[in-house]
Write a structure and sequence with these properties.
This protein is an alpha/beta fold. Helices cover 37% and strands 25% of the residues. The strands form 3 sheets. Strands 1-2-4-3 form a 4-stranded mixed β-sheet. It has a 4-stranded mixed β-sheet with strand order 5-6-8-7, covered by helices on one side. It has a 3-stranded mixed β-sheet with strand order 9-11-10, covered by helices on one side.
Length: 235
């Protein structure tokens, strides 16, 4: 079916099932499915869609952006970058007196101090900021969840991996992706728990997932956030 409201048009499919309420799902490709109780009038379905119209449009935009993949960043004032799951605009400050380019999180924006206004220097300053923040956040999170484990990590490293969010080897050496600081704290905590559980179970067998689930019952929600949002985690 097709419906136009508030200047926008959507296509959706209705599935009638044995249920008591109307539900709306949007898949990774932006396909909308409405699940409704049998004999639900079309008018009621359209009313539910219109009630949730703003959220639907937001989800459709996210699906479109996700399919397009990472977009090239512009290193100019007000361009936004993720930090702990939220987008923050940047403000670039040229200061010839500083000893090293650096980034300061002010609370409502990221202040980038550089000696020269060059894109590569701005990019490297941001990357260095995320490395430092990820290292501090990871160490604090490991300390928080250590109570669930009888053994401790032998070492902790932050790396520039393009394939994994974290790893744990047979020597209990943990490594984590510097981009983790862009994710919400609870998502970072999940990656920490995941790798710490590998100190006990090196593979992804049932015992491993039972342990993860015992410490973090809603871990699948965190996995989903990474799956749907990793394309935004870039500088």
């Amino acid at each position: 079916m097709i419906h136009t409201y508030a200047g926008a048009t959507i296509r959706f499919e209705i599935r009638y099932k044995n249920r008591t309420s109307i539900g709306i799902t949007i898949d990774n490709y932006g396909n909308i499915e409405v699940q409704a109780p049998k004999k639900t009038p079309d008018e009621k379905v359209l009313h539910i869609l219109e009630t949730n119209w703003e959220l639907i449009q937001q989800k459709l935009k996210e699906a479109k952006d996700r399919l397009q993949g990472p977009q090239e960043k512009v290193y100019e004032n007000e361009e936004s970058f993720l930090y702990l799951g939220k987008p923050y605009p940047i403000k670039i400050i040229e200061d010839h007196s500083i000893t090293q380019d650096h980034v300061v999180f002010e609370g409502d924006r990221l202040l980038i101090y550089v000696k020269q206004l060059e894109n590569e220097k701005i990019k490297q300053s941001l990357k260095r900021f995320y490395f430092q923040q990820t290292k501090a956040i990871v160490r604090k999170s490991i300390s928080t969840y250590q109570c669930h484990f009888k053994t401790k990590p032998r070492s902790i490293r932050i790396t520039d991996s393009t394939k994994t969010w974290g790893t744990c080897d047979s020597n209990r050496q943990l490594t984590f992706n510097w981009r983790l600081a862009m994710a919400p704290q609870e998502v970072i905590d999940y990656v920490i728990v995941h790798e710490m559980c590998h100190m006990i179970h090196l593979n992804h067998d049932r015992s491993f997932w039972r342990m993860v689930g015992k410490i973090m019952p809603d871990y699948k929600e965190k996995e989903n956030w990474l799956a749907f949002s990793n394309w935004k985690m870039t500088v």
